[in-house]
Amino acid sequence: MLSQPATSNALARLRHLTNDALFVRASGGLQPTPVAIALAQQIRPALHQIQTALWPEPEFDPKTSDRVFTIGMTDYVEFVLLPRLLETLQSSAPQSVDIFCVDAIALQSSSPRSAHVAERPHCKHNH
């Protein structure tokens, strides 16, 4: 994180280099100039490469993953898809599969971060 003075100094240096204001005041706050928009589009891939080099995303390995996935589905979709899903998960993630069916309507009406939905015990599968 940069402090406010450091950010202002960096912006001043960019303004000098580009010979452009980069941001202008508007009714909704600051708006980027066309030069700022073009510059952002050109440097975004380089910034992404730097971010990837410094903080690489770990490869997902279903056999060792301990991530939790919640899938909400209707009873019909559960009936049609769950058997195939279980079969696929048992072969690709044999040691790390926990499946709890939840009511899709309850899941949809709750905030994802605070959802407390009722599990259907007949559907619980731990492998």
Task: Write a structural description.
This protein has helices spanning about 5-20, 35-55, 75-90, 105-110; strands at about 25, 30, 70-75, 100, 100-105, 125. The chain is α+β, with helices and mostly antiparallel strands. Residues about 110-120 have low confidence and may be disordered. The relative contact order is 0.09. It is elongated.
Figure out the total of helices: 4
Mean of all residue-level pLDDT scores: 78
Show unreliable segments: 112-122
Name the shape in a single word: elongated
Strand order of the largest sheet: 1-2
Briefly say what this structure is:
Helix content is 46%, strand content 13%.
Helices and strands, with pairings:
Layout: H1 4-18, E1 23-26, E2 29-32, H2 34-54, E3 72-73, H3 75-92, E4 98-99, E5 102-103, H4 104-108, E6 125-126
Parallel strand pairs: 3-5
Antiparallel strand pairs: 1-2, 4-6
